[in-house]
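Reply to dn_fold:

You asked what the input looked like. This is it:
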Amino acid sequence: AERLAAVGGDRFSLVGLEPGLYDVKVVVPGYVPVVVDGLSLDDGEHLTGLEVRLDKGRAMRGMVQSADGEAADGVTIRTEHQEIRAYTHTTQSHPDGSFEVTGLVQGTYRITTISKGHATTSTHVSLGETELEALTLTLDPLGRLTGALSSGVGRGGIVFTIPEGGNLTDPQDP
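and this is what came back:
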């Protein structure tokens, strides 16, 4: 069985590996994931000296606010690199609306905000050689659809389909 045994603060050892070809992926929160491809291990072989350099990468920081400009707490913010799908990060906004995503690589990201009571929204931003420090994400309120039935049959036989998380209320009911 494959196991990871930490030997010290910056050392590691993979034990119990069958002979074969391995790709080693190192994931440390706050750092860019690193993949070392094509490590060949023969029967009984002990490979030493593998050095993995971790890079803090870039960061994206900003604020989440409601449509009226109030800080939005507990909003889920998902960042997804548009070319490298493995670079997807999720975080939550703090009580003051601030958020930070670290360990990012350069490129275009789709940023999605998810918050109860608000529409799920997405936008795209480009992250270059410098970090994004002042990104503002504004939540959109959920929409409302109202109307009247005029088929002459009252409410019988009419089907309303409401998306998950939505509700249907009688406009005559306050």
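The mean pLDDT is 80.
Hope that clears it up.
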